[in-house]
Design a protein that fits this description.
Blueprint: H1 15-23, H2 28-35, H3 41-48, H4 54-73, E1 74-80, E2 92-95, H5 102-113, E3 120-124, H6 131-139, E4 142-145, H7 151-170, E5 176-179, H8 194-201, H9 208-213, E6 217-224, H10 230-240, H11 251-261, E7 265-271, H12 277-283, H13 288-306, H14 311-321, H15 332-346, H16 353-373
Parallel strand pairs: 1-7, 2-5, 2-6, 3-4, 3-5
Antiparallel strand pairs: 6-7
Helix pairs in contact: 1-6, 10-16, 12-13, 14-16
């Protein structure tokens, strides 16, 4: 079997067959109608079947699709930090994770806007359900990362992904996007998992500084005025307080669709400064586990200090803490609108309403707490 056969995204020579399968899927017309409402579906299908390369697929369809989602569901996308990126370097983009699809997709749109190549993207095997999702994902530079399993399986899968990511960065000359933790942040409290950083390191026997330094670890922070799937996350947080949360069949796909279609207000994506050799040298002065804990703290502080706070964050903080500390950032009408939005959403959830309210507010308030903690 060729190297990384079970992990890698599609190569250019696999695109024509994958495009044919996607175009033949019964959901193809529905997708086209939502993303390209003013275009002829038959014409799009005809052109889709002519695709030959990954770049052609991204340029003609995926980037347009994400821009369409931004236009239909947000009041605008702003960005910062892209000017610091070197087009001759490749980066391990370690990102906070709020939406299954959009976090990585927004970065691709902005990389393209700044005349840089798009990155490869981690693709949890829990999301690889159905040929349509798998084909579109792997056509879009997404590579497989396995969740769960026995201790032996977990290490073997982690080593495979770590080795592949290093190969993508150093040999394929492709940047990589990966979430700072396993799965989305549900409670709004972004934290880098030490296990993710350790996973980066297991594909090299070099020293700590050289090992991680050659990856160009670059934290990325995405923030939404209205958190994608905020009420679904609230329900999950509530249930998880009392029992182990078990996802329903198709729940991840439902979250993808909900996250895409939900109104988001403003969106911000910031590329923060790359972790420096000096910072890695500082981390290296501690013993093994503490090295990674210190690096995680540096990444977290980067994300917190560059997180764009919206009026929804300030309102939630004041409501949760019964204070007027941040009233200069919003009006009474905006506060009333947010409270109405919250009450309408919580009404459909199962559980004690005051507790649900506090969990919901926490999703929006935690980024404020994190900035205050730096």
């Amino acid at each position: 079997m060729a190297p990384f056969e079970n992990t890698r995204p599609y190569n250019d020579d696999e695109i024509p067959a994958a495009a044919a399968r996607v175009a033949d899927n019964p959901f193809f017309d529905n997708i086209v109608h939502y993303l390209f409402p003013l275009q002829n579906p038959a014409k799009i299908r005809q052109n889709f079947l002519k695709l030959k390369t990954v770049k052609e697929f991204q340029q003609k369809y995926m980037l347009h699709a994400i821009n369409s989602i931004i236009a239909q569901t947000s009041s605008g996308l702003d960005s910062d930090g892209f000017e610091q990126l070197d087009k001759n370097r490749n980066y391990m983009f370690v990102a906070n994770h709020r939406d299954i699809l959009l976090d990585a997709a927004l970065l691709q749109v902005l990389l393209d806007h700044h005349n840089m190549d798009t990155s490869e993207i981690t693709f949890g095997d829990n999301l690889m359900q159905g040929s349509l999702v798998i084909d579109i994902g792997k056509m879009n530079k997404m590579f497989r990362i396995v969740r769960g399993g026995s201790v032996h399986d977990f290490y073997r899968n982690s080593l495979e992904v770590s080795t592949y990511m290093r190969y993508a960065l150093l040999e394929k000359k492709q940047s990589v996007w990966i979430a700072q933790r396993n799965g989305r942040t549900k409670d709004g409290n972004d934290r880098t998992a030490i296990a993710v950083l350790k996973m980066f390191s297991i594909s090299s026997n070099a020293s700590f500084v050289e090992n991680l330094g050659e990856l160009n670890i670059t934290p990325v922070v995405t923030s939404y005025e209205f958190e994608p799937c905020d009420f679904l996350k609230t329900q999950e947080l509530y249930i998880s307080q009392y029992q182990r949360y078990i996802k329903e069949p198709g729940e991840d796909l439902n979250s993808i669709i909900k996250g895409v279609k939900q109104a988001k207000g403003g969106i911000s994506v910031v590329v923060t400064p790359t972790i420096t050799t000096e910072e890695l040298q500082y981390c290296d002065t501690f013993d093994k586990n503490e090295k990674f804990a210190r690096l995680a703290k540096i990444i977290d502080d980067r994300i917190y200090s560059h997180y764009k706070l919206w009026k929804t964050n300030y309102i939630a903080y004041d409501l949760l803490n019964n204070t007027d500390r941040f009233t200069k950032f919003y009006t009474p009408d905006e506060k009333n609108d947010f409270e109405t939005y919250m009450q309408n959403g919580i009404r459909s959830l199962i559980g004690e309403k005051e507790e649900l309210k506090n969990l919901f507010l926490g999703i929006y308030a935690h980024p404020v707490n994190n900035i205050l903690s730096i």
